[in-house]
Amino acid sequence: NRSRGQNPLHLVSAWAARQRLVLGQQACAEKSNEITAIPELLERLELTGALVTIDAMGCQTKIAAAIRNKGADYLLALKGNWPALCAEVERFFADAGPDTCQHHQSTDNDHGRLEIRRHAVCHDVGWLTSDKRFPGEWRFKDLAMIAMVESETIRGAKTCLERRYYLSSATLTAQQFAHAVRAHWHVEIRLHWVMDVVFHDDLMRLRTQNGPANMATVRHISLNLIRSINDKASLKVRRKTLGWDDDYLETAITAAHK
Question: Which residue has the higher pLDDT, 127 or 132?
Answer without folding.
Answer: 127
